[in-house]
Amino acid sequence: MDESLQGKTALVTGGARRVGAAIARRLHAAGANVMLHYRGAEAEAVKLEAELLAPIASRALVSAALERFGGLDLLVNNASTFYPVAVGAIEASHWEELVGSNLRAPLFIAQEAAPHLAKNRGAIVNIVDIHAERPLKGYPVYSIAKAGLAALTRSLALELAPAVRVNGVAPGAIAWPEDGQFPDDERDRILASTPLGRVGSPEDIAQAVHFLACAPFVTGQILAVDGGRSIYL
Asked: Model pTM?
């Protein structure tokens, strides 16, 4: 398998921080031109601030990549919103934000990008979650959204074949959330149920994305990068 992405162009959503930044660095190191979408970081420094839930966002993002680099070879749908909301407290705004960022936006960006990816026999990689298959307690809307993204990944693999390959990466515990959503005892429990006994790094996810971007006979697959934790879920 040729792992070089020299001369290729990748669009990475949510690419300014954490996992998204690691993906961007990995793809760029492999030779790709990388177009980043981000929300909130240095918003005043750019003319185009693409809010993924805006109706024009998908076209604006893809158009920006085409205008800057002349084509598109890889789309990485990484941007995500993640927070708990209990049954009984779910409001329409929660649904719009969680499903919007984790499912609706990837669908419409992929749809916009598909004709351009097809010209280059390109690929899509969606960042899913191991909890798409086994819901995370306290996070029902998020889990539903990621389950939808897993289904979207497999559906697009059929719809866009043979010109575009579509795969997903399902992270487990990869760098704890910065807002303290998981207290120490919960972190200990998660580590105890992870065969490799550690939290993964954003670079672990970036490596998997790079592999799927280059694997010419892989499509419709969702690769768990979770230290083996999904064995116990």
From this structure: 0.93
